[in-house]
């Protein structure tokens, strides 16, 4: 995500995006684009295989839009704890150990406790859901996630009547997430949803994609997916879920409150202060697509926000 001195992704050329910064600079410095340079740029860090996972049901929520390749989904990432360039998380993902892994559930629920990730994965049947995903930096992908509805998990916790929001926290461990050694953001990364958003049937906890467990760069072993919101709401490598009465702090809002709001619903009519949100570049394509209100999920989610001024509550 772009902080003031960084170049917005929307102003970066497709060549630079495709090759990654270092390769692009190397090509630029070398002048002519040699075949050897191109080959090394494209043969980036190989994609390690995750553990195979199967789904009880498959649903496509992306119409006729084709899913991005596994290579694209695992080599063009935002996960600042593993580096701030898009190709960094794939390179550094090996330091993140997704087993053993515990998720604490706390706050306004009947019985606070700790779940082991393997126990959680046995409790909820996995579904494959193909979702359109839109980053606030004006790029997008289509991803075949594997996971279960967040609402199913939250209902099992039996929230009290005081539970109005859900607060999520990423692992804090600078040895596993070396980006936490630098104060790029306040660590750990935190995110939140209103309880009605969190229990909306489209919101999911993902544990895999493309038929296998998540790799570190995509937020192993468990991360949030809310496809009508900008990608930064999709907090990775979750260790704590707390139900609370008041709106919780969120990382990008703490960092730059005028640029990143709590809601972060995809909205082509409300520009980021430094770039337009009207269009987006689908990774793997040239040219731009029109961004859709609520990322194309308005029919399902717009009613959650009736009466809310979406320009103020961005
Ligand atoms: N903990 C954590 N979660 C995070 C981020 C991050 O830097 N740290 N980046 C967010 C952003 S900006 C995006 S676009 C998505 C990217 O998810 P992907 O790399 O799996 O496509 O993860 C989100 N979740
Ligand atoms: Mo993002």
Account of the protein in words:
The protein has helices at about 15-20, 20-30, 35-40, 70-75, 90, 115-125, 150-155, 195-200, 250-255, 300, and strands at about 55-60, 100-105, 115, 125-135, 140-150, 165-170, 190-195, 205-210, 210-215, 225, 240-245, 280, 290. The chain is an alpha+beta fold. The protein has one domain (about 15-305): Oxidoreductase, molybdopterin-binding domain (Sulfite Oxidase, Chain A, domain 2). The strands form 2 sheets. Strands 1, 4, 5, 8, 9, 10, 12 and 13 form an 8-stranded mixed sheet that branches. A 5-stranded mixed sheet has the order 3-2-11-6-7. α2 runs antiparallel to α3 (about 35-40). The model is unreliable at about 5-40 (pLDDT under 50). It binds the ligand Nc1nc2c(c(=O)[nH]1)N[C@H]1C(S)=C(S)[C@@H](COP(=O)(O)O)O[C@H]1N2 and molybdenum atom. The ligand Nc1nc2c(c(=O)[nH]1)N[C@H]1C(S)=C(S)[C@@H](COP(=O)(O)O)O[C@H]1N2 binds near residues 1 and 80.
By CATH, the topology is Sulfite Oxidase, Chain A, domain 2
Number of domains: 1
Strand/helix succession:
HHHEHHEEHEEHEEHEEEEHEEH
Low-confidence stretches: 4-42
Broad structural category: alpha+beta
Q: Assign the CATH architecture.
A: Alpha-Beta Complex
What's the total helix number? 10
Helix content: 10-25%
Could you describe the largest sheet, including whether it forms a barrel? 8 strands, mixed
CATH class: Alpha Beta
- N- to C-terminal separation? 16 Å
